[in-house]
Amino acid sequence: MKAIIAAGGHATRFRPLTWSMNKHLLPLAGQPMLFHPIRNVVEAGAREIAINVNPGDKEVRQVVGDGSRWGARITYIEQEGGPRGIAHAVYNARAFLGEDEPFIFHLGDNIFRNGIKNIVERFRAEVLNCALTLSRATNLTELGVAQFDPEGKLVGVIEKPKEPPSDLAVAGVYVYDKCFFEAFQHIQPSQRGEYEISDIHTWLLQNRYRVGYDVVDGWWKDPGRPAQLVEGNVLAMNSLPEDQYVIEGEVDPSASIEGFVKVEAGARIGPRVVIRGPVIIGKDTQISHAFIGPFTTIGAGCLIDGSEIEHSIILDRTTIKDTPRIDGSLIGRNASITSHLASSPSSGHRLFVGDNSMVEL
Questions:
Q1: Which of 79, 217, 298, 334 has the highest count of CB atoms within 10 angstroms of its CB?
Q2: Same CATH fold, 242-343 and 2-238?
Q3: Going by C-beta distance under 8 Å and a sequence separation of 6 or more, which residues neighbour residue 21?
């Protein structure tokens, strides 16, 4: 079974970070978000994978590579005609997928506690045309929501409903056979000009195709906003196997490390540092005179000195020095956060802040 993973779009809710990087490369539990769905489809049996990317995108290719690290082969397919909806992203890959074989479609920004093998097994065992993953969610007006008849039978999917018909959202993994391409020929772009994946499912249901579903066992997360990414990082870190928390870098004898902590090679934990896990420290990062609290991931090549950080995601090559406590934050690459008192004790804060940023002082 082949698989396609969607990693396009512009992720406007993550700007300014996504002005300079693809959202799907933002880290979760110390790895690019996109690595999680790749691992899911491989564990479900896919060895031929296509990743849908924006036209001209090179960074995803550079970070992900050819798939050999997962024992798979990865192909990259550029989205044609601009953002036309995730159903069109699948249709755009029809030459890769073929129009006669079943395939997995996985959104590149969705993470699942227990992987996706259950839904693939259900698809095969029940000889379905389409299998959906469902999960209970609170932000139903931002998602596709399952609709059931009075007998509890799935009869449709409504995209971003003002009044949700149930509490079950369609999560970001789907399995289809060739009927997907027939359904696509019968749907029209929505009011926002996109081919909605929910319309595919509703058409299949209305035309009596075999559509099954599986309610997600464990948590599912669609981190569509920065705060949700930070929350997703907590879930992913809690699910990381204990043997992944290893200390390969240098730790000063005076430093205190408690709980599950990963320190990558080349990193140095200096004096007067307290780290309470789960925490992940990237390679070549230097930390001294600091407190790093639970559910924090710090990227590669960072410098942390005289600061407190907890429940946050810090991307590569960022400097944080002599700052008050940082909590529940997402900080991009090459950022510099320092105390204004160090340069000019009598002045106010000096800020260089990009579009769509959020700062609390």
A1: 298
A2: no
A3: 59, 332, 333
Alpha-carbon gap, residue 225 to 83, rounded angstroms: 19
Q: Where are the alpha helices (DSSP H) in 65-109?
A: 86-91, 94-97
Edge-to-edge, what's the strand order for the sheet holding 273-276? 256-258, 273-276, 290-292, 308-310, 326-327
The phi and psi torsions of 207 (rounded to 5 degrees) equal -105, 20
Domain assignments of the chain as residue spans, ordered by start: 2-238, 242-343
CATH number at 2-238: 3.90.550.10
**Tens of pLDDT, residue by residue, the chain (361 residues):** 899 998 877 766 667 666 677 778 888 888 888 898 999 899 888 999 999 888 888 888 988 989 999 999 999 998 877 668 888 889 888 889 987 889 999 988 887 777 788 888 989 999 999 998 888 877 788 788 888 888 888 888 888 888 888 888 888 899 999 999 999 999 888 887 788 888 898 899 889 899 988 887 655 666 566 777 788 788 888 878 888 899 999 999 999 999 999 999 999 999 999 999 899 999 999 999 999 999 999 999 999 999 999 989 898 899 998 888 888 888 888 888 887 665 555 566 666 666 556 666 6
Rg over alpha carbons for the chain, rounded to the nearest Å, is 22
Q: How far apart are CA 279 and CA 157, in angstroms?
A: 39
Q: What is the pTM of this model?
A: 0.82
Q: What distance in Å separates the CA atoms of residue 279 and residue 293, rounded to the nearest whole number?
A: 7
Cα within 13 Å of Cα(292), Cβ side: 35
